[in-house]
Amino acid sequence: MLKVRMALAAVFIVVLACPTLADPPLWVVKSGKAEVFLFGQMWVKADTHWQSSKTWAAFNKSVELWTENPQERGNLDPSLLAEINRNSKPVSDLLSPNDMARLQAFLQTADVPISAVNSSNAYFLLEGVLERQGGLDPGNLPEPVFAKRAAEVGKPIHSEWGSAEAALRWGASQPDAVQAGLIRKALDELDEGAPAFNARIAAWQRGDLRMEVSSVQRFRERSPAAFRAVATDRNASWVARIKDMLSRPGVYFVCMGIDHLVGPEGVVAQLEAGGIRVKRQ
After folding, report:
1. pLDDT score, position 188
2. What distances in angstroms separate CA 208 from CA 191, 205, 258, one per listed residue?
3. Helices 122-133 & 176-205, crossing angle to 10 degrees?
4. Residue 5 has pLDDT above 80, yes or no
5. Which of 16, 36, 96, 244 could join 29 in a cystine, given CB atoms 3.0 to 4.6 angstroms apart?
6. Is 181 helix (H, G, I), strand (E, B) or coil?
7. How far apart are CA 77 and CA 165, in angstroms?
């Protein structure tokens, strides 16, 4: 295991040291007649300019779009949400007194009563607070922009989860340490505030990954159980999907959160450590 981690770290250093800084990050993987483009997205504002001719050329070349999140429209049935959350716990059972105080402070700014929060929905509620606090615009998020274009031209769309229900059930099924770690991650991002998040967006826009690498490393150190479930294990599943794409002729475009792609245990490093060459565009 130590040798594997050392190999991943060595590969990652090479990947990080060789970027072309100009646009949001895009990688390509090739094997025979197969080609997979990997685009790393992050939350953006309405006026964030992230679209480039290079990115759209890769997208237009592809025959399939893969996204991290399902692109369903509308709200889930309330009875289904209640069933998914049936075994949820009060957040006070998961968090330290200090983290509970931080949570209550942020919920107060959003006019959300603590009684409405449980172990299954706290992370998503805090992400909503972060979205409003930072002035972020879901409509300019790369995933739905790519999905809209794919639907317009009849390009098949697939996602990691298959459905919003599947994603929610996965979150609700996670052990306490994972759910607490996710809540802590969201609280840490809220503590950093809008200026720090704006700096991350600006760095991402020009292809500079250093701030995202630091964010990934902090998550790993602060919440190892959550990091393993949300990052390491899911990244390994993405690597398996990408290998499957590479086994079939065609061009595929994959859009996922940038933090899944960077770091010693990110998708790019895992692919490289497995002997698959990944090239930064």
Report:
1. 94
2. 23, 8, 11
3. 20
4. no
5. 36
6. helix
7. 10
Q: Which of 62, 18, 17 is nearest to 39 (CA)?
A: 62
CA distance linking residue 236 with residue 154, whole number of Å = 29
Whether 25 has a pLDDT exceeding 50, the answer reads yes
Which strands form 64-67's sheet, in the order they lie side by side? Answer: 157-159, 64-67, 250-257, 34-41, 26-31, 278-280
d(CA 272, CA 264): 10
3-class state of residue 70 by DSSP: coil
Q: Answer yes or no: is pLDDT of 13 > 80.
A: no
Q: Name the token pair of 226.
A: 């959550």
How buried is residue 177: exposed, middle or buried, by Cβ count under 10 Å (0-12/13-18/19+)?
Answer: middle
What are the C-alpha distances in Å from 251 to residues 56, 116, 180? 13, 45, 39
pLDDT > 90 fraction of the chain, expressed in percent and rounded: 70
Phi, psi of 112 (to 5 degrees): -110, 120
